[in-house]
Amino acid sequence: MSETKRNKERVDRAWNKLYDRLDADGLLLSGRQDRKRLSASMLWKWGAVAAIWIGIGVFLTTTYRKVDESVEAQVLLMRENTEQSTLVTTLEDGSIVYLGGETSLRYPEHFSMDKREVSLQGNALFDVTGNRERPFLIETEEVRIEVLGTAFHVKSDAGSPFELSVQRGKVKVALKNKNQEMYVNAGEAVTLETHQLRLTDYRDNTRIARYLESMRFKDEPLMNILRVINLHSSGLQLQTSPSLGERRLTVAFSGESPESMAELICLAMNLKYTREGDIGVLSE
Predict the structure, then answer these.
(1) Exposure string (b/e) for 71-82, b if CB count within 10 Å is 16 or more?
(2) What is the count of structural domains for the chain?
(3) Closest CA to 111 of 77, 145, 85
(4) What does pTM read for this prediction?
(5) Is residue 92 part of a domain?
(6) Between these two residues, 50 and 140, which has the higher pLDDT value?
(7) DSSP-assigned letters across all residues of 26-56
(8) Domain range holding 128?
(9) What is the C-alpha to C-alpha distance for residues 218 and 251, in angstroms, rounded to an integer?
(10) What's an example of a GO molecular-function annotation for this chain (predicted)?
(11) N or C: which end of the chain has fewer CB within 10 A?
């Protein structure tokens, strides 16, 4: 005998016992009324079961949706640079991060409404887009950094003490597990020595220049690549159409001029390059 048939017989026996007991206690109506009452009871019973399962289904769907939305909100992306050349990444808000060798950056796909928070391990140059309503926060192992809009260099690799130098703007540095924080202005640097932050003058721009000597872009929109090139070009400015600007490209440069970079991009993407004065145009 199949398991389904055995289960059906057990259910029938249980219902018969219940019916006999109710009949013996005089709780059943006779004839047509009896059949109506029993049918209504059974309908109520199965309706209750259905309601329970529907309720569970709604609960599970709602819970899954809430968990899914929460996980989606917390999804982190990671850029990891295992090479010595600089890996350049543009974040959702337009901030540019130049990752040094053996450096990793974790950041959300979409920043929250009240802050822009990332986590850094290693050395990087940041050029942060200004937004006073949404401060830019950087978490390192020992220090928390808060900026509104500025350019600065962070050194937080495991082999040397923490160091931050500001190229422009102002940065607030807070030491974790210690009640110490410090504001660092352009031309200043802060270092971590014997568990204390120490402020000094900083005039050495060669470290920042080294980030620009050899740059790589990995699966970056063309518009972001051209923007970085233009930021560090005193003359020629590169342009393209919005549709071409959305196309993604992986490319590396090592000391080329902006015009040579434009020609390399055109070669890789099968585009044309034309120049009029200080404007270089990439087109199909």
Answers:
(1) eeeeeeeebebe
(2) 3
(3) 77
(4) 0.72
(5) no
(6) 140
(7) T-S--HHHHHHHHHHHHHHHHHHHHHHHHHH
(8) 97-204
(9) 7
(10) sigma factor antagonist activity
(11) N
Residue-wise pLDDT for 17-51, tens only, equals: 655 655 665 555 554 444 444 444 444 444 444 44
Return d(Cα 35, Cα 31) in angstroms, integer. 7
For residue 14, the model assigns a pLDDT of 59
To which residue do tokens 């390399």 refer?
A: 264
Residue 68 has a pLDDT of 46
Q: List the structure tokens of 87.
A: 């890996």
Residue 233 pLDDT level (bands cut at 50, 70, 90)? very high
pLDDT at 206: 79
Task: Please give the distance of CA 56 from its chain centroid, rounded to a whole number.
Answer: 32
* 58 in a structural domain: yes
Please state, rounded to an integer, the average pLDDT across all residues of the chain. 82
Cα dihedral across residues 206, 210, 213, 215: positive or negative: negative
- Domain-embedded: residue 86: no
Please, is 145 exposed, middle or buried when counting C-beta atoms within 10 Å of its C-beta (0-12, 13-18, 19+)? Answer: buried
Pairing of strands 151-156, 116-127: antiparallel
Q: Residue type at 105?
A: L
Q: Does 168 map to a domain?
A: yes
Tokens for 28, please give them: 């059943």
Dihedral of CA atoms 61, 62, 65, 71 in degrees, nearest 10, equals -120
